[in-house]
Amino acid sequence: MARSSGGRSAISRAVDVLEAFDPSSNELTLTQIAARTGLPMATAHGIVTELVALGLLERRGREVILGVRLWELAVRAPGVVGLREIALPHLERVRDRLKQHAQLGILQGGEILYLERLSAPESVVNFTKVGGRIPWYATSSGLVLVADAPPERQEEVLGLPRPRFSVEPHPSSADLRPVLAKVRREGHAVTRGYIHPDATAVAVPIKGPYGHAVASIAVVVPTDGFRAAPVLEVLAPAAHAVSADLKQNYLG
Predict the structure, then answer these.
(1) SS3 at position 205
(2) I need a surface site. Which of 35, 179, 189, 233 has the fewest CB within 10 A?
(3) DSSP letters along 140-156, please?
(4) Measured between alpha carbons, how far is 240 from 151 in angstroms, rounded to an integer?
(5) How crowded is the C-beta side of 63, counted as CA atoms within 13 Å?
(6) Does 23 or 241 have the greater pLDDT score?
(7) What is the C-alpha to C-alpha distance for residues 39 and 232, in angstroms, rounded to an integer?
(8) What average pLDDT does range 121-130 have in this prediction?
């Protein structure tokens, strides 16, 4: 693979172009792509032209958008779409019973990637988007998944930078370790007003076929009048049911 003068491969620069898009900026001009990636305009133009030819990007007037072929490739990823499909009926029941947001997330690096979010009319404020990411330390899903991670993985995540994302607390790694131990012991995490003061999130882990947490189910409910017990009465059985379905699906 030919490399640029900076020593970065053409593939890595193409990934930079694709990652320039996010849920709030899904239509970009070439100038915006060059600015977001730091690539020279001519280099950005060449990469965009090739990605369009491959169907990974599509033109929309002066702007380009992510191409349908990316979705076609993504749905083949094991453990992501299969997980979403298995979890979806249970997620729908959680949403219908609590009449609030229900969401499915996985830990990717130091962030929670949301595979699904279902909302009900009059739901409380929620900034989660399908395909969006939020730093692990700002979410109940992040706390519950890092808490359930093996010690070496937990230390790796704790060692990552933690710039303030919103209004979440900003404890040190030493402060977080007992918090994570408590979350692991209790089997759920609560983040009260971490991203918005009106919203509280509760998450429980989904266990994979071999007993490790592979995802989380979370709900976002109003902070005013919040009580954990009624939420967990709905959330915990749903997570157990998804875990059982995953085990049946993969191990028979």
Answers:
(1) strand
(2) 233
(3) HHHHHHHHTS-HHHHHH
(4) 23
(5) 9
(6) 241
(7) 48
(8) 88
